[in-house]
Design a protein that fits this description.
alpha+beta, 4 strands
Length: 502
C-alpha cells in the first residue's frame, strides 16, 4: 500500500493493459473450414431441386444479353451467371453456382476478418451464425445482386483490417479493388468508401496511411472498376442512377406502418433472437469504440442500420437491404458472447439454433407443399405448369407467335421454362415500363405478330392498356396454380395480335 506521504495514483493515471492478441486455434480453424465446405456442398446440391425464383430468372435473362450494366442494378450478378452457365450448362444448379461462388468468397473473408480481429473461436461462432440465419442461408442458393455485394464487402473489410494490422498501406489497394467488386454488384457498395476512410481516420496507424498515396489509389481503383456502370448510364440518360435515387424519393411518403413491416421482415429473415443480439452488439461496439476491433465492427455496421431505420417510415425497406450491415454485427456479437460467456452466450446458442431450424424450414418449403407457408409468397411454384400451358397456346398460333408477360417476373420465368428458351417480351408492349426489358424492346420486330399475353394476378395494375395494344384481344381460360390445397395465384391469358399503341 502507498504511504500517507505518497497518495495513491488516480484511476486515470493507471495505464490500461494492452488488449490481448486474438487467439488462433488450428483445431477450431479446421472445424470452420469443414463447416463452410459442408454447408456449401449441401446448398449446391439443393440448388438443382427447385425452380428458379422470378428474380433469378430475371438476372439469368441479363446474362443472355451481356452489357456494361443494367437498368435495375450493376452487372456483376449477370456476369457471374454467364460464367457459371458457360462452364456448367443452363440448368438451375448451374445458375445458382453463381450464388455459391460469391457465398464462398463471403464466408472465407468473413471468417478471416473475425479471426484476425477477435480470434478463432469468435470466427467459428460468427461463421456458424451466418450459415444459420435464413437471410444468408438462402443467399447461398438464390443468386441476386446482394451476392457480389456481400462478397466484395467482406473482402474490403478484410483487406482494410489487414492493412491496419500489418501497417502496410499497400493492402488498401486490394481494399479498393474489393470496393469496386462490391459496387459492380450493387450501389450499396459505395458506403464502403466513407467507412474505410473513417476506420483509417480514427486509428493512429490509419492516419499515417492517409498521408501515403495508397488509400487514394485504392479509391481511384474502385471508381475505375465502376466505370462500366457509368458508361451504361451515360448511354441511357442516367436511367439507372435516377431509378435508384430520385425516383425512389418521389415514391416516398410518411407511412408509420412501414416501420412495423420493416422490423417484422428483418425479424423473419434474421430471426428475432439473433436480430436483438446483433443490434445490441452494434450498440455495444459503438460504446467500446476505443477498442480498434469493436470500432471497426461499429463503423461497418451502424451506418446502414441507422440509414434503414431513418427511411423506414417513408419507404419500404426490403428485407435484403440490410444484409451488408450484418457481417460485422455478427463479428461483434460472436466476440461478446465468447468474451463474457454470460447471458449473451446462452441467448446466442438459443438464437442460432432457432435460426438454423427456421433456415431448414425455409429450404424445405418449396420441396414439401404440405408445410404451412403463405402460398402467394412461395416464389418457385407454378412456373413449369404455366410454361406448359403457354407453350400449348403458342403452338396453336404458329411458329412466329410471341410470348409476353405483364411484368418482368412472368416474362423471365417463361423465357427460361418455355421449350427452346425463346425471347419473351414484357409490359413495354402495353406502354408500361418493363424495367430492363424496355431496353430490349424492338416494336418493329413485334408489330403485326400474334402471341400469348400473360398476367399474374399477384401483380396489380399491369398491362392496363392491353385492349389498345392488341387488336384483337381474345381471352383464354385462366390457369390457377395451387400449393397443396392453397391457391398460389391465377394467371390470366389472352391471344393478342400486337398493333402497337398510338
Amino acid at each position: 500500500m502507498p504511504s500517507p506521504a505518497e497518495p495513491a495514483p488516480s484511476p486515470r493515471a493507471v495505464p490500461s493493459p494492452p488488449p490481448a492478441s486474438p487467439v488462433r486455434d488450428p483445431r477450431l480453424d479446421r472445424l470452420a473450414l469443414a463447416l463452410g465446405a459442408t454447408v456449401t456442398a449441401l446448398h449446391v446440391a439443393y440448388g438443382g431441386l427447385i425452380a428458379l425464383s422470378p428474380q433469378e430468372a430475371y438476372y439469368w435473362t441479363w446474362s443472355r444479353r451481356l452489357a456494361l450494366s443494367y437498368f435495375d442494378h450493376p452487372p456483376l450478378a449477370a456476369w457471374t451467371i454467364a460464367l457459371t452457365t458457360a462452364l456448367a450448362g443452363e440448368g438451375e444448379r448451374a445458375i445458382r453456382l453463381a450464388a455459391a461462388l460469391h457465398s464462398v468468397v463471403f464466408a472465407v473473408f468473413l471468417w478471416l476478418t473475425v479471426r484476425r480481429l477477435f480470434g478463432s473461436r469468435p470466427a467459428l461462432v460468427a461463421l456458424a451464425a451466418a450459415f444459420s440465419v435464413p437471410l444468408f442461408g438462402m443467399g447461398q442458393v438464390i443468386v441476386t445482386p446482394d451476392a457480389p455485394l456481400l462478397s466484395g464487402w467482406a473482402m474490403a473489410l478484410y483487406f482494410t483490417v489487414r492493412a491496419l494490422d500489418l501497417e502496410r498501406p499497400r493492402w488498401l489497394l486490394a481494399a479498393g479493388a474489393a470496393v469496386g467488386w462490391a459496387v459492380l454488384g450493387k450501389y450499396t457498395g459505395f458506403l464502403l468508401l466513407p467507412q474505410i476512410l473513417l476506420v483509417l481516420a480514427l486509428d493512429p496507424r490509419g492516419r499515417r496511411m492517409l498521408r501515403s498515396p495508397w488509400p487514394w489509389l485504392g479509391a481511384a481503383l474502385a471508381l475505375a472498376l465502376f466505370a462500366p456502370v457509368v458508361a451504361w448510364n451515360l448511354q441511357h440518360r442516367m436511367a439507372s442512377f435516377a431509378f435508384q435515387t430520385a425516383e425512389r424519393v418521389e415514391r416516398s411518403g410518411f407511412r408509420p406502418v412501414l416501420v412495423g413491416r420493416f422490423l417484422a421482415l428483418q425479424a423473419g429473415l434474421v430471426t428475432p433472437i439473433v436480430l436483438v443480439l446483433l443490434v445490441e452488439a452494434v450498440v455495444t461496439a459503438v460504446r467500446r469504440r476505443r477498442e480498434a476491433a469493436y470500432r471497426i465492427c461499429a463503423i461497418f455496421a451502424a451506418p446502414l442500420l441507422v440509414l434503414a431505420a431513418v427511411i423506414s417510415p417513408f419507404h419500404w425497406v426490403k428485407g435484403n437491404w440490410l444484409a451488408a450491415a450484418y457481417p460485422t454485427a455478427l463479428a461483434a456479437a460472436a466476440a461478446l458472447a465468447v468474451e463474457r460467456r454470460g447471458w449473451r452466450w446462452k441467448a446466442g446458442v438459443a438464437g442460432v439454433a432457432l435460426a438454423a431450424v427456421a433456415s431448414v424450414y425455409v429450404h424445405l418449403v418449396p420441396l414439401w407443399p404440405a408445410l404451412p407457408f403463405p402460398a402467394r409468397d412461395e416464389g418457385s411454384s407454378g412456373w413449369r405448369e404455366l410454361a406448359a400451358r403457354v407453350e400449348a397456346e403458342r403452338a396453336a398460333l404458329g411458329p412466329d407467335a410471341f410470348v409476353a408477360g405483364c411484368n418482368y417476373k412472368v416474362s423471365a420465368e417463361l423465357e427460361y421454362y418455355l421449350p427452346g428458351r425463346p425471347r419473351t417480351w414484357s409490359s413495354e408492349i402495353t406502354g408500361e415500363h418493363g424495367l430492363q426489358y424496355r431496353y430490349w424492346f424492338d416494336p418493329e420486330a413485334l408489330r403485326g405478330r400474334s402471341g400469348v399475353l400473360v398476367l399474374d394476378r399477384r401483380e396489380k395494375r399491369t398491362c392496363l392498356r392491353r385492349a389498345e395494344a392488341c387488336a384483337p384481344l381474345e381471352a383464354l381460360p385462366p390457369l390457377t396454380v395451387r400449393r397443396g390445397g392453397d391457391e398460389v395465384t391465377t394467371f390470366q391469358l389472352w391471344r393478342c395480335r400486337w398493333a402497337g399503341l398510338p
